[in-house]
Structure formats: structure tokens, C-alpha cells
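Below is the record:
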Amino acid sequence: MQKWAGMLVEPFCNDDTNERGLRLLEFATFNDLVLANTFGHHKASRRWTWHSPNGQHHNQIDYILVRKRFRSGVNIARTRSFPGADIGSDHDLLMMTFRLRLKKTSKPKHTRLKFDLEKLKDPNVLETFQAMIGGRFAPLTIMSNDDTDIDSMITTFNTAVTETASEILGKQKKKPWITAEILNLCDKRRELRKKRFEPEGSEKYKEVNNNIKRCMKKAKENWIGEQRLKKI
């Protein structure tokens, strides 16, 4: 098996093999696997996995297969056979210690914008929105007559819609009493969140966070008062 060293197994394995061993190596090659319990430079008694009934012959015929991409997660020193384990078999207990390192996923830099579409129910707001977005679409008419790249037209279209909606509709409110001032403070707090563990950034973060709480409490009380007046 030495010709397979560095590919699927390490030198600490059997010097030769039989047909079944070759079939195992072919299977490992086809599926991009490695034999994990051949990596460690253990003494022979900790590499053997099988013993003959008379105790005179020993062999390494049991293997733990791991994908190559996870090879670095195998703890080589603690991946071996344990001959002292009483399992009532002519095979020794074979164990592997494995540490899986999960990749940290990053959140998208640009979150989806949600606008307050309820404002479009107001005829005056709807008329203003249509007039402004119609004026912004005028350059698209000129661009469509030229040999303009389609990507440029899409970018211009998206910019026109986003800027108009931001200016006329504003961001969607999760709660009816949320004001534009509170939303702006939330954006500011989101920017300071990255520096909240720094001495200066921590103070600014706490200040903005407390200001948001005060504004939300006051805005909610005002909204509740307005709702009561409407019922009278």
C-alpha cells in the first residue's frame, strides 16, 4: 500500500494488501476519501484492528474514511485503535476524534428596502409620486432610442424608483407610531454597532440607544392619545 502514501493513506499502514484492500482504495479514490486512522505515527498495537484467534497474527483491516476537505479536522494523535476496550470481538475498538470548523457566513451588505406603500392610498401623495417618477423616467426614453447598454438602463430605472420612493413614501414602519426621526436614529445606531466595544464608540452607541427608547416611548404615547381622540 505504500504506493498510495500521500494520496489516500500515510506510511503508517500495511506494507501490502489484497484484492479487497485495492477495492477499498479504488472506492476512496472515486469518492475523494482518505483513510484517517493511517495518519498517526502510533505503535503497532494501536494501529492493529484485528487479531487472530491464537493471538499470533495481527492486522490493520478496519478503516475510518473521511473526505479530503475535512482532513485537517482529524485529531491524528487521538485517532487510533483501543486494544484495551472489552467489546467481545476479535476486532479492536477504533475511534476518531474530529473537530469540524464551521465557516462564518457574512450577512449581505445591502438589505432589502421596504417603503411605506400605505401612503399611496392618499390621492395627493399618489399624484405627487406619479408626477415625480414620470419626470425621472424621461431620460430612459432618450436612452432607449440610442444604442445604450441594457445594464445601464436597468441601473437608471432602479435608481429612479428607489430615490422617488425614499423621498415621497419613506421607509415602511413596523409600528404605526414609528416616526422618521426614530428610523434615522436606528440607522445611526446600526452604524455605531460595529464600534460598540470601543471606549468612544460604546458611549455614542449607548447615547443613541437611550435616545431611541425615549423617542419611541413619547411617539407611542402621542399615537395612543390621537387614537383616543378619533374615537370621541
Remarks:
- The longest helix spans residues 199-231.
- The two ends are 91 Å apart (CA to CA).
- DSSP finds six helices and six strands in the chain.
